[in-house]
């Protein structure tokens, strides 16, 4: 995808990876970034190319209003997400799963539905869903998160098939740990958000439909081709090893 003069919408752009994506895409030549945020005042808009946009992705009225305002978007980055740290069988397992699905799946779906016609009207463009190495494997402490990210991965694959006809590149961005508020309680090596953002820019430039942004995501994806009974031991060892080598 040509990033020069791209008009971008990033959900959850006020902090973490969303903020890093904003900087990287502007540096790569984007003309404007609509910085979606539940609280637009939390967006750093010191660069005049950054346009704060009220967008709670779970609120249909916000999503509809955003599609009306940001009608010139050529690149949508579905980044906003939560990690409840709940597992399926815990006391809060059902409520946690519903929260994860509401944001990490239905939120991506709602914004994608609203902006697919916008992208079509603007020549096709691209849609990126920010996923995870945990779209492919599950650990006890991330069970509900993994299930929601798996659903969002499947949605990404589905959107790729249905939006190909209008010329929209649909890409999934996968990564292991990155150093953001989401992983503040995780004691493990973490990628710098700027490095993940650089991988996003590089992948978009060459039209990658699946962007594996770090060693962890590349390791986990490759491990899926092994026998199922060995998968989890291998993935856990490789996941830890990849993290340790960073
Ligand atoms: N950090 C990692 O290690 C890692 C690894 C793999 C994938 N990811 C994915 O990367 C994405 C960004 O995560 P992050 O690490 O940057 O997390 P973060 O620092 O916790 O930031 C999360 C962002 O999502 C926003 N958000 C949450 N719920 C929202 C909603 N209903 N509507 C709109 N915005 C909402 C937050 O807004 P508020 O400020 O209003 O809360 C915030 O801007 C997520 O999809 C996450 O699953 C992260």
Description:
- This protein has one domain: NAD(P)-binding Rossmann-like Domain (Rossmann fold).
- 46% of the residues lie in helices and 13% in strands.
- It contains seven helices and seven strands; from the N terminus they run βαββαβαβαβαβαα.
- It has helices at residues 16-27, 60-69, 93-121, 143-163, 193-205, 215-223, 228-245; strands at 7-10, 32-37, 50-54, 75-78, 126-130, 169-174, 210-212.
- Strand 6 (169-174), helix 5 (193-205) and strand 7 form a beta-alpha-beta unit.
- The longest helix has 29 residues, at 93-121.
- The radius of gyration is 17 Å and the shape is globular.
- Residues 11-12, 14-18, 38-39, 42, 55-58, 79-82, 103, 107, 130, 132, 175, 177-178, 180-183 line the site of NADP nicotinamide-adenine-dinucleotide phosphate.
Summarize the structure.
With 246 residues, this protein is α/β, with parallel strands linked by helices. 46% of the residues lie in helices and 13% in strands.
């Amino acid at each position: 995808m040509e990033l020069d003069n791209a008009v971008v919408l990033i959900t959850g752009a006020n902090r973490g990876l969303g903020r890093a994506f904003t900087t990287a895409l502007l540096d790569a030549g984007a003309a404007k970034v609509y910085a979606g945020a539940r609280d637009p005042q939390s967006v750093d808009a010191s660069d005049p190319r950054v346009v704060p946009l009220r967008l709670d992705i779970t609120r249909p009225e916000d999503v509809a209003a955003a599609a009306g305002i940001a009608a010139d978007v050529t690149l949508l980055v579905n980044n906003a997400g939560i990690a409840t740290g709940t597992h399926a069988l815990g006391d809060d397992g059902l409520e946690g799963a519903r929260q994860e699905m509401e944001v990490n799946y239905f939120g991506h779906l709602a914004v994608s539905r609203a902006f697919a016609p916008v992208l079509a009207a603007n020549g096709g463009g691209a849609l990126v869903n920010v996923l995870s190495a945990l779209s492919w494997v599950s650990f006890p402490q991330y069970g509900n998160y993994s299930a929601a990210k798996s659903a969002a991965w499947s949605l990404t694959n589905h959107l790729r098939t249905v939006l190909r006809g209008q010329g929209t590149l649909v890409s999934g961005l996968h990564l292991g740990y990155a150093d953001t508020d989401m992983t503040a309680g995780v004691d493990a090596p973490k990628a710098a958000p700027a490095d993940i953002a650089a991988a996003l820019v590089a992948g978009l430039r060459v039209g990658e439909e699946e962007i594996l942004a770090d060693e962890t995501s590349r390791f986990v994806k490759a491990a899926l081709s092994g026998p199922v009974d060995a998968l989890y031991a291998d993935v856990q060892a490789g996941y830890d090893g990849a993290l340790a080598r960073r």
